[in-house]
């Protein structure tokens, strides 16, 4: 029996990805979650981080936010910001990084924003390595 | 009776107008295909978003404490109307139809003694609404310089709506846009987005799953609902863009045809008066010759 389930990544203007995967790791708001086939129905939302899709090609996507639903072996990721990291170049990463660092140094932001930004910075730094 | 030269000039000017409308029709047709594609591509997102919210609302344990974006403030005193139109004219009744529908609603709201606030998107709508309802306009958006409207613009409008809502500036929010049915028919539509319309969140399938929520339902809803507002605005944008091009295409097609008819009519006129003047000259010559 196949151990695969379908993954769909959809942004407001197009369907980014629709593949079969063996395992998907998503950066859920409270921590990373690994999803395998026959996971129980799940709804959650994302913090900035990397979605790792493990199939024949092993794709990694960078996301900033999004909503995730897993139901009937169908993983649905709705996000407005997904981007494959192989498409990233150094300059755009640095730019995003600078913007995020500028924002986090601002005292006025809420704890929640700080939490999200710190993950964004960390993820971007990791990609940069 | 216009002279032959005048007629000639008119024919020429109508012909050049026809050329312009023909070109505009062609451009609109090309843009329409793209806009239609975009609208199609955008549909899964809003559809799936709806289904997630549906699943979430089904499993809310305490409906009384549900987020206000979903159930409303409990009042219905102030209405926020978001009127989405195009930035360019020459597209038939496209802009007027939205404004007409919006104005009917404005009137109703005001007659019921409720407060009205208006946000306009697109400069053409603003021009029409400004006349009668200028003092109610609280914010105007125009994306004239953008070649293609993307999600970030919708997010901008969405955030503004949420902002006003969080400041308790309004109780209900309605958006007006043209729904793209097909190239010839676009239906102006009023859609209530805050509080979420219970009709649109009607369940189609009764199967209910017991979901695991991570973190809990309320927090997810708090994150999801503002996003849903932007998504709905974006959906309206896409439908509107397709409708605008469709409407322009039909309008320009009609204009081209009208110009053709006019050219035919003028040409007949021109030929007749040419013939008349020839006949006149002939009669003059003949009668001159006879009298000799």
Distance between the termini of chain A: 39 Å
Number of domains of chain B: 2
Encode the helix/strand succession of chain A as letters: EEEEEEEEEEHH
Q: In CATH's first tier, which class of the largest domain in chain A applies?
A: Mainly Beta
Describe this structure in words.
- The complex is a heterodimer of chains A (129) and B (292).
- Chain A is of the alpha+beta class and 129 residues long.
- Chain A folds into two domains: 5-84, Sandwich (ATP Synthase, domain 1); 88-128.
- Chain A has two helices and ten strands.
- Chain A has helices at residues 90-104, 111-128, and strands at residues 5-11, 14-21, 23-28, 31-35, 42-45, 49-54, 59-63, 67-71, 74-78, 83-84.
- In chain A, the strands form two sheets. Chain A has a five-stranded mixed sheet with strand order 2-1-9-8-5, with no helix packed on it.
- Chain A starts with a strand and ends with a helix.
- The mean pLDDT of chain A is 86.
- Chain B is of the alpha/beta class.
- Chain B folds into two domains: 4-22 and 252-290, ATP synthase, gamma subunit, helix hairpin domain (Helix Hairpins), CATH 1.10.287; 29-248, ATP synthase, F1 complex, gamma subunit (Pyruvate Kinase, Chain: A, domain 1).
- Helices cover 61% and strands 14% of the residues of chain B.
- Chain B has six helices and six strands.
- Chain B has a five-stranded mixed sheet, with helices on both faces.
- In chain B, helix 1 packs antiparallel against helix 6 (217-290), helix 3 (94-111) runs parallel beside helix 4 and helix 5 (151-166) crosses helix 6.
- The longest helix of chain B is centred in the last third of the chain and has 74 residues, at 217-290.
- The interface between A and B is medium-sized, with 23 and 30 residues.
């Amino acid at each position: 029996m196949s151990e695969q389930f379908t993954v769909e990544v959809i942004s407001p203007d197009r369907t980014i990805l629709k593949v079969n995967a063996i395992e998907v790791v998503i950066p859920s708001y409270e921590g990373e979650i690994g999803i395998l086939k026959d996971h129980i129905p799940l709804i959650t939302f994302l913090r900035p981080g990397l979605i790792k899709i493990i199939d024949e090609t092993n794709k990694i996507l960078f996301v900033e936010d999004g909503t995730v639903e897993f139901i009937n072996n169908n993983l649905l990721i709705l996000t407005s910001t997904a981007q494959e990291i192989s498409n990233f170049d150094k300059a755009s990463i640095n730019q995003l990084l600078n913007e995020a660092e500028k924002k986090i140094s601002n005292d006025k932001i809420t704890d929640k924003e700080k939490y999200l930004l710190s993950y964004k910075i960390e993820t971007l730094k990791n990609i940069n390595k | 009776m216009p002279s032959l030269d005048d007629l000639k000039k008119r024919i020429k000017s109508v012909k050049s107008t026809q050329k312009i409308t023909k070109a505009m029709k062609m451009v609109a047709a090309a843009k329409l295909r793209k806009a239609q594609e975009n609208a199609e591509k955008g549909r899964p997102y809003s559809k799936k978003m709806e289904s997630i919210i549906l699943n979430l609302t089904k499993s809310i344990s305490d409906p009384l404490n549900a987020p206000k974006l979903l159930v409303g403030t409990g009042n219905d005193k102030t209405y926020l109307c978001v009127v989405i139109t195009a930035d360019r004219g020459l597209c038939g009744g496209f802009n007027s139809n939205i404004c007409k529908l919006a104005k009917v609603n404005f009137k109703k709201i005001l007659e019921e003694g409720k407060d009205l606030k208006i946000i306009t998107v697109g400069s053409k709508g603003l021009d029409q609404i400004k006349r009668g309802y200028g003092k109610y306009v609280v914010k105007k958006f125009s994306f004239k310089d953008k070649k293609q409207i993307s999600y970030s613009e919708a997010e901008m409008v969405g955030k503004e709506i949420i902002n006003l809502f969080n400041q308790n500036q309004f109780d209900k929010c309605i958006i007006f846009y043209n729904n793209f049915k097909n190239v010839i028919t676009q239906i102006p539509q009023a859609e209530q987005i805050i509080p979420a319309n219970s009709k649109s969140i009607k369940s189609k399938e009764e199967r209910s799953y017991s979901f695991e929520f991570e973190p809990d339902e309320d927090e997810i809803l708090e994150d999801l609902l503002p996003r849903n507002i932007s998504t709905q605005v974006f959906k309206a944008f896409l439908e509107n863009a397709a409708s605008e091009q469709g409407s322009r295409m039909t309008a320009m097609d009609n204009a081209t045809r009208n110009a053709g008819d006019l050219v035919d009519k003028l040409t007949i006129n021109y030929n007749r008066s040419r013939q008349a003047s020839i006949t006149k000259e002939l009669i003059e010559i003949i009668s001159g010759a006879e009298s000799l």
